[in-house]
Amino acid sequence: AKTHHHTWDISYQYKSLDCFEKLAVTVNGESPGPTIHAARGDTVVVTVRNKLETENTAIHWHGIRQIGTPWADGVSGVTQCPILPGETFTYRFVVDRAGTYLYHAHYGMQRVAGLNGMIVVTEPAGAAVEPFTYDGEHTVLLGDWWHKSVYEQATGLSSNPFVFVTEPQSLLINGRGTAFNCSQLGAPTGSACNASSSCALPPAAALFTFVPGKTYLVRIGSLASLSSLSFEIEGHSMTVVEADGHYVKPFVVRNLFVYSGETYSVLVKADQDPARNYWAASHIVGRDTTKTPIGKAVVSYSSGANGLTTPPPTAPPAGPVWNDTAIRVAQSRAIVAHPAHVIPAPARPDRTLLLLNKQARVDGHLKWAINGVSLAFPSTPFLVSMKRGLTGAYDPRPPPDTYTAAGADGVNATVRSAAYRLGLGSVVDVVLQNAEMLSGGNRSETHPWHLHGHDFWVLAHGDGEFDPAADGGRLVLDGRDGQDRPIMKNTVPLHPHGWTAIRFRADNPGVWLFHCHLEAHVYMGMGVVFEEGVDKVGRLPASIMGCGRSKGLRH
Ligand code: C2O
Ligand code: CU
């Protein structure tokens, strides 16, 4: 196995990702940052130098389980102190499973500002275990983009009255947005708005090249901050073969729904007319966003006489109906493990957490709360305070395992820095229960939930309110019907008005965040923290300490 060393300078730069110039947090001057390539079993070492001048940072390696290295998970307030301006911090971890993963800032809402990228882990040479073949590869990182700064967004979310971030101005594909319409700004056209028709085409838009007749593995991930997305390549069907680093029983789609924090690999055959170009497009689903232009990139057949920058002769695809939840739930249910790559799930849990996802008011401020508790990130990282017994650094009372009928109806919550304590090695079920928005109108949102430090089995997506008596049986895997092949993932959507059940083994000593991957939601408290076997964690590196009550522990 190899060791891959990277040195990253994190800095603000002027960028025109969607042709509108604004500051972005970059890795070595780029947003998205470079794709990290490694083979299964390799070690990745990233030396991060914070050159933001006035802002902290921390970087999370999304989907990497950090087995034995919980201090490298990169979550400010959970696994480390933030990296101060001018400081250097080194992440060192093993990538122990092939697949498509992500990285991004995990400090406040900093991810929104552009610090993100992909991690591609391949099978080591000679280990031909992939249950499919292909001729070439492309990576597609989906995102959304605002012209308001992170500070303005975060201040609005924590103000009373509440100021929403609004819908994004653009959807990005590999960090490129199509021409933002300057006239929508309602302000005099200034030098900051450079939109022109050429903005819609490469190099302003991302470009993917196909050789006719070849089959491509397209690795797709989303680090959108708010948007649930649908991705498609005009005229081409896609066969889904991998999700979050696990092989899928293949199924064919025209458009793939991708929730923030998820990754998929699809096979695409270059089987269309090579004499023209095609659109690759992303659309928002689940929110009425007719104001956000669709995300566009260009697919070009290299053999064609057409130039790479010739626009496709067609209008971009219209995308699916934004508010059809049923087709999205159906696609979520279609994702099951490849028959030759099933990792059997334990038949039953040792403990079940029933987590109600609800908006709440705390002193008049709008929050998201889980069983009445809205998460506040403590100034001392949980990993340090729990391992070193720093009392007073967090709330020692764990949040409730379930909610009451009164809790389901109430609007009140408390803001706390508390963690669930899980038995090391125990099997835990989590049933995520959705609810309606406080604003009423029978509205309910999509929440993609991401678990750090583990993969989980996706047991079920249900409608309405979970009933332990009636629905509990659906979660028992007795192996009798041959259908008990839940896929393992690290991110899964909780659909509007529904529930989602997952199961995992709490076998990775450390302290791990489990949260809604929408940046505004986790900022408003939509997450929980799991501790398991913290006493078994090895010696903590001094570099993660130095803040809050860990001040004196640095040396
Ligand atoms: Cu990609 Cu805690 O998230
Ligand atoms: Cu959410």
Automatic annotation (TrEMBL):
- Source organism phylogeny: Eukaryota, Viridiplantae, Streptophyta, Embryophyta, Tracheophyta
Q: Output the Gene Ontology cellular-component terms.
A: extracellular region
Indicate yes or no for the key word Secreted: yes
Q: Which reaction does it catalyse?
A: 4 L-ascorbate + O2 = 4 monodehydro-L-ascorbate radical + 2 H2O
Which Pfam families does the protein's record reference?
A: Cu-oxidase, Cu-oxidase_2, Cu-oxidase_3
Q: Which UniProt keyword terms apply here?
A: Copper, Disulfide bond, Metal-binding, Oxidoreductase, Repeat, Secreted, Signal
The protein's name: L-ascorbate oxidase
PANTHER family in UniProt = L-ASCORBATE OXIDASE, MULTI-COPPER OXIDASE
